[in-house]
Design brief:
Layout lengths: L13 E6 L10 H17 L2 E8 L3 E8 L5 H22 L5 H10 L20 E2 L3 H17 L14 H4 L15
Antiparallel strand pairs: 1-3, 1-4, 2-3
Organism: Flavobacterium algoritolerans
Protein name: Transposase
Amino acid sequence: MSTKYKATTTEDAYFITITTMGWVDVFTRLNQKQIIIQALHYCQDQKGLEIYGYCIMHSHIHLLCKATNGFILSDVVRDFKKYTSKKIIQTIIEEPESRREWMLDYFKKACEHIKQEQQYKVWQNGYHAEHIYSNKFIKQKIDYIHNNPVNEKVVTMSEDYYFSSARNYAGLENELDVILLDLF
């Protein structure tokens, strides 16, 4: 298996993207975004995850982060995806969702080819980890993360998107604490 886009070292920062199967727009609902925020809080508190930048888009999540205190980022991401998959499916089933039948059917079919027994597959395999190697690269990735909602025309200014660390960097109310970097 290739390690090109995997977080194989400890204590190093990575830019990662976690994407839903088929780029399904799961995170158009507030309750689904809250699942992601709560899971990221848990990873920060219990799994040594340091987050420097993030954005929850409709079908994917961008993070600039690293695992600390002996944790390995690939393990943290694996556990995050496993937990949030179950919570996302539970929320689709139990809470109002006009796309319930379609989404459940899609996520069920997404795992038909998997050898291990699994009822639903919410996340694509992998997380496209890119090792952070310079301050220029950090700035580029933070700009990319923060401008993602602007480029998708969800908002006109990055700090207006509530589920992004652009709000942290602008000193505004936010849902998730991040470690602010000096972006020169």
